[in-house]
From TrEMBL:
Key words, A-Z: Chaperone, Coiled coil
Any one GO CC term of the record: prefoldin complex
PANTHER family, per database record: PREFOLDIN SUBUNIT 1, PREFOLDIN SUBUNIT 1-RELATED
Keyword Zinc-finger annotated: no
Source domain of life: Eukaryota
Any one Gene Ontology molecular-function term assigned to this protein's record: protein folding chaperone
Coiled coil, from the record: 17-51, 88-115
Family of the protein in this entry: Belongs to the prefoldin subunit beta family.
Protein name per the record: Prefoldin subunit 1
Organism field: Salvia splendens
InterPro entries to which the protein is assigned, alphabetical: PFD_beta-like (IPR002777)
Presence of keyword Coiled coil: yes
Length: 128
C-alpha cells in the first residue's frame, strides 16, 4: 500500500474508534441512569409495602403533592421498575455490540500498524 493510502486508512480507523468510543460512553451513561431509576423504584416499592392500605399516600407532581391511593403508587413504581429493567437489557445488548465493534477496530488498527512500522513510529512520537 502507498504511504498516502495507509495514512487515509489510519485516519478512517481513528475516526471510527472515536465515534464508537463516544457511543459506548453514551450507552454506559444511559445504563447508569436506568440502574438509578430502577433502584429508586425498588426502594420506593419496599417503603410502600410497609404501609397499611388505608395510609394516605401522596405523589409528587412538580412542587405539589397530590393524594393518591397506595395501589396506584405501587403500580406506577412497578411499571417504572419493569421499564428500567427492559431498557437496561436493551442497552446491554447495544453495549456488547459496541464492544465487539471496538475490538474489531483495534484489530484493524493493529494490523495496519504492523504493515507500516514507520507510521507506528510516527504515531508513537506524536503521543509522547
Amino acid at each position: 500500500m502507498g504511504d498516502e493510502t495507509i495514512r487515509n486508512a489510519f485516519m478512517e480507523i481513528q475516526g471510527r474508534m472515536i465515534e464508537t468510543t463516544g457511543k459506548l460512553k453514551q450507552v454506559q451513561n444511559q445504563m447508569r441512569n436506568k440502574e438509578t431509576e430502577k433502584k429508586r423504584a425498588y426502594l420506593t416499592l419496599e417503603e410502600l409495602k410497609q404501609l397499611s392500605d388505608d395510609t394516605n399516600t401522596y405523589k409528587s407532581i412538580g412542587r405539589t403533592f397530590v393524594l393518591e391511593p397506595k395501589s396506584a403508587l405501587m403500580e406506577e413504581q412497578e411499571g417504572k421498575f419493569k421499564d428500567s429493567e427492559a431498557a437496561i437489557s436493551s442497552l446491554q445488548t447495544s453495549k456488547e455490540y459496541l464492544e465487539k465493534q471496538m475490538a474489531e477496530i483495534e484489530t484493524n488498527l493493529r494490523e495496519l500498524l504492523q504493515q507500516d512500522p514507520a507510521l507506528a513510529r510516527q504515531i508513537m512520537s506524536m503521543s509522547m
